[in-house]
Amino acid sequence: MGHLGTQTLVLMMLAVLPDAGLSCPHPCACYQPTEVHCTFRSLLTVPAGIPKHVERMNLGFNTINRITESSLAGLRKLELLMMHGNDLHSIPNGVFRDLMSLQVLKVSYNKLRVITGHTLQGLSGLIRLHLDHNRIELIHPDAFQGLTALRLVQLEGNHLQQLHPSTFSTFSLLQHFRMSTLKHLYLSDNSLTTLPRQMLKSMPQLENLFLHGNPWTCDCRLNWFLEWSTQSSGVLKCKKDKAYASGQLCPMCSSPKPLREKDILDQQDLTCSGPVISSPQKETTPEDNESEVLPLEEFKEPFGNMTLNLMDEHGNAVDLDCSIREPRESTKISWEHINPQQIAANISLFLDLECPIDRSNYEKLWKLIAYYSEVPVHLQREIMLSKEPKLSYRYKQDIEKDAYYYTGVKANVRSQPTWLMQSFLNLQLNRPQSTGKMVKLILNMHTSQMVETEIMRRQRRKWVMIESNNRTRTVQSVVAGGMSEMDCAVQSSDDVSIQWMLPDGSKVPAPYYSSDNRVSVSSAGRLVIKAVDHSDAGVYYCIARVREDLDMLPFRLSVEESSGPPPGGEGGARLDKLAGEVISCPVPPLAPQTPRSTGSCQMAMW
After folding, report:
1. Residues 6+ apart with CB under 8 A from 376
2. I want to staple 49 with a disulfide (CB 3.0 to 4.6 A). Which of 7, 25, 178, 252 is the partner?
3. Which residues form a coiled coil (predicted)?
4. How far apart are the C-alpha atoms of 328 and 353, rounded to whole Å?
């Protein structure tokens, strides 16, 4: 074949396969038919004419400041997308809807501020997500829902101040357990002061966690983290840095002042302190400065309920109506990916049952179940007793498993949720925590669930989160007669219900106005107390609820005595300070025939 014939053949091939050489978008370079390279081209938008068969595309180091729903439409084979080093301020919903093959997305070094529950929609195959060095302040708690292939999230160098317990969960089990498939999580160099307890519990497969460079508040809210780090040895990683004597930078305390720049993991038994104004005339003791805070679990609705009609072969019988508390720490959840569309999960669940009992039944119950405080009674499901209106089953003791302790225990069981009534139940008396009025039992059962990932991606979780950042004043010290304001700023996926629990345990909804108008709560959640009295001191809880979620934020208020305003003055000056900082209150000069005034000031600790 001559030279002219060769040229003709090449032109014919290009005509048949137009994407092979003629469809590279201007001004990009396409060194391979499935690759598009567009770095350092001063692009303002994603270039037009991207071939549909492209698998790898690099748009890094441009000035792209706008991306539309059509910018990446139809790129169903794209596996790698690099958009780092641009000027993106936001990502519209639906931009990634066609990128079901994408495995790596890098949007580092942009100016993103918020990641919503729709930002990443469509990325069902995403494995690695790089969002580091943006300006991200908020990640909606359903942002990663359905991204069950996700293993790495890089968020270093953002402006995060708060995380929801479910922020990184990728799928749910039994409509209750929100789990995360992440193995690598980078949260260093943000503005985080604490972490929610449940967040890391949802990540049993986590291998690497980076937290250095955050202004951690080392108080009682992080005690759980010390326990977790011991149980999950080696997961928390430090940054190698020769500038430090140890040769590495680990998470360090930023406050309180005595613990500043000390390694978090070197601490033990962290405490929470209330506000205090000290003076030479008043000695402050540690006991004055301690303030116990109720955990979030205290405000949650019961996990469920269970009715137990128990009997044994000796004629003992007792009926119990029990509330079920949140799952115990000993609960274990594991899973494996059967295929990209299915996850097989196994759950070993341990639950606390709280069962009120009167004195007449106490002795009967003790005779029936006292044997089973060291080891559980193993119950096997026998027959269905009823289907409507409520499902119930009869259980009998498993004689093979309980050959040593066997008393012929039988139980008629009805529960909500109904899936708790598995084929086998283990029931054990919690003797140390039981009383004559409340018997506590430990229920253990095993169950499994097959998760359909496509269905999971379509579901949207409801969530609520009370803002807690460096502008939130959760600790206040107010002079008697002054006014206290506590702001409870709430973000949620749906209409939210807000209420405050006062130090005496009473609860008031939003909006609320007391009969004397001294205490009020706005519809947005702001609590105002006028003419503050010493009886107002204590811990206040803002509680926000949606149907599937709850959040709580405690506020501490202390009330200080005042000898009254200085002569000729209207009242004390207001001072705003960070916790641990020193304040000075003006003290008027001695007046004839009068004792020295201690001055008047109101302190708000941030």
Report:
1. 426, 427, 428, 442, 444
2. 25
3. none
4. 11
- Give every CB contact of residue 203 below 8 A, 6+ residues apart in sequence: 168, 179, 180, 182, 185
Instruction: With H, G, I as helix, E, B as strand and everything else as coil, classify residue 259.
Output: helix
Single-letter amino acid code for the residue at 390: K
Query: What local confidence, expressed as pLDDT, does residue 17 receive?
Result: 41
Strands 216-217 and 253-255: parallel
User: 439-471 pLDDT, tens per residue?
Assistant: 999 999 999 999 999 888 888 889 999 998 878
CA distance 260 to 275: 18
Residue 273 CB contacts under 8 Å (≥ 6 apart), including other chains: 219, 256, 289, 290, 291
CA 299, distance to chain mean position in Å, is 15
How long a stretch of residues is the chain? Answer: 606
Tokens of 35: 């690759």
Nearest Cα to Cα of residue 209 among 126, 153, 149, 136:
153
DSSP per-residue codes, 141-196: TTTTTT-TT--EEE-TTS------TTTT--EEETTTEEE---SEEE--SS------
Q: Give residue 277's pLDDT.
A: 52
Strand partners, 308: 320, 413
Q: How confident is the model at residue 273 (pLDDT cuts 50, 70, 90)?
A: low
Q: Under a CB-based contact definition with an 8 Å cutoff, are residues 195 and 222 in contact? A: yes
Q: Which tens digits make up the pLDDT trace of 220-252? A: 889 999 999 999 999 999 998 777 767 789 999
Res. 18: pLDDT tops 50:
no
Let me know if 265 is exposed, middle or buried by CB neighbors in 10 A (0-12, 13-18, 19+).
middle
List the beta bridge partners of residue 35.
56
Q: Which residues pair with 353 in a beta bridge?
A: 324, 441
Q: Which residues pair with 475 in a beta bridge?
A: 556, 605
Among residues 200, 219, 218, the alpha carbon closest in space to that of 209 is found at: 200
State the average pLDDT for the chain.
87
Token pair listed for 573 = 């000056």
Amino acid at 79: E
3-class secondary structure, 512: strand
Distance linking the first and last C-alpha atoms of the chain: 83
- pLDDT over 50 (residue 100): yes
Q: What are the angstrom distances between the C-alpha of 519 and each of 500, 509, 531, 552?
A: 11, 12, 9, 20
pLDDT in tens, 148-161: 999 999 999 999 99
DSSP, collapsed to helix, strand or coil, labels residue 43 as coil
> What is the rounded CA–CA span in Å between residue 429 and residue 222?
31
Model pLDDT, residue 564: 56
**Where do we find the tokens 């949720």?**
417
